[in-house]
Amino acid sequence: MNSVTTDCCVAEEDDCSDSEVLCLMRVGKNSDWLRLFENAEVTIGRGVEVTHQLLSSTCPLMISRLHCSFRQREDGQWTVTDKKSLNGVWVNGERIPAEQPHLLRLGDSIQLGVPLLGTKVEFDYILIRRPLKDIKPYLVKGHREDSKAAHTPKKFKRKLAVEEVEPSTSKHKLYRCSSADKPFAKPCPLSPLKARQQLSHTQPEETVSSIQVNEEEQPVSDGSSSAWDLNNLLMYSQNILLLRKQVNDTQRQVESLEGEPRQADPLRGEHIRELQAQLEALRVKMHRMETLERSFSETKRQLEEQKTQQQEELMKKQLEEALQEQKKVIDELALSRKGFEEIISAKNKELEVTKEEKEKARAQKEEVVTQVTEVLENELQCIICSELFIEAVILNCAHSFCCYCIKQWRNKKDECPICRQAIQSQTRCLALDNCIDRMVENLSLDMKARRQTLITERKGMSHHRRGDGDPR
């Protein structure tokens, strides 16, 4: 009993928290989800001493008394164990061996039992992890009461003697009806005549009850997925087909009863009236189901239009954001272009300043050359030939002349052409020649060529005169 109290306290603490829990989500339904409690073994079966009790509405013995168990390992992983069930436990479409723990992962498909002919598996689950506050409305109701009932004292069955055993009128195990499973038990097979007579009583009630159950199980959610919509639409279509079939069967029964020869059967008329009332009820239900199907289809169409409109709005929003981003990029490029233009303008100004400085330097150089040329023309020029000194000589009066020019002058007069003093001596001035040669290097090419030509001519004339026998 202490373990039961501890489990209940743990469950209550989990209910008050917002932590994520592990559960088995029922495929196709927003109810009857099975929660897996941590640090506890969770058992599933049709018996009363289990954590979650499953009762099949189509086949009572589909789920064994103790069908399977879920347990969390020390490393936090969950396992499922088949407790030697009749119809087995199927994980991701494969049946697991009995009494061997099978490791589970999130998203695994877990099926309990097998599908009947023409139907799907009734107990089909998917292992998920969600916040408790989100899945609490979908969990199976009364799991705590079931867990408490699982620990009530057992009532031992008394073995009957051979004489107390009833005659062998028992039927196949699949058609037995226990007290706990009585509302969900499958009726025993009847003879064709009795089945024909009771068909009108059983089918309408089962159809009405199935329709009511399906209507109660409709998920009331604000944003149901397309999978739920498809399942609901298929369910409505199947119900309508079933109703139509039952209407046709009931109508054929009424026609067959009316076509039979009248006999003194007091229940025949009442039976016909009852069948007609059931036929009318089935027609009303079928009309209601068709109305529900039309309204569901209209709602689905509206939801699809709304979804399309939302997608268009989302596309417009994304397009506007892309345009804004493009505008930002264009603005950034414009700013970058402006900055580059400013840099280029500054560089151009620097180049203009540098060019002006070069022009100034060039002008200064030309001015210096002009000044030097003027100095050469004024100070280092021979007054006889009006050219720069060539092999300059200095007289005794300190005046300078070209060697060739003063020789030609002394042939006429033996006095200084400037001061008119008698020429007593003349001396070569190498310093003056070297200075003139270096200054001539910075002059223009024309002046250089002219001077070289003049030097060559004078040397040729000097050699010619020496050849003629000039004593000087």
Instruction: Give the overall form.
Output: rod-shaped
Q: Give the helix level as a range of percent.
A: 40-55%
Number of helices: 9
State Rg: 62 Å
What is the N-to-C succession of helices and strands?
Answer: HEEEEEEEEEEEHHHHHEEHEHH
Largest sheet: 6 strands, antiparallel
Q: Give the helix/strand class.
A: alpha+beta
Which ranges are low-confidence, i.e. pLDDT below 50, for 5 or more consecutive residues? Answer: 1-13, 143-224
Instruction: Give the distance, in angstroms, between the N- and C-terminal Cα atoms.
Output: 156 Å
Strand count: 14
Summarize model confidence as the mean pLDDT: 76
Strand neighbour order, sheet with most strands:
2-1-11-10-7-8
| Fraction in beta strands | 5-15%
List the helices and strands and how they pair.
Layout: H1 2-16, E1 20-26, E2 34-36, E3 42-45, E4 52-53, E5 68-72, E6 78-82, E7 89-91, E8 94-95, E9 102-103, E10 109-112, E11 123-131, H2 132-135, H3 143-149, H4 192-216, H5 226-259, H6 266-379, E12 392-395, E13 400-402, H7 403-410, E14 426-428, H8 430-440, H9 445-468
Parallel strand pairs: 3-4
Antiparallel strand pairs: 1-2, 1-11, 3-5, 5-6, 6-9, 7-8, 7-10, 10-11, 12-13, 12-14
Helix pairs in contact: 4-5, 4-6, 5-6
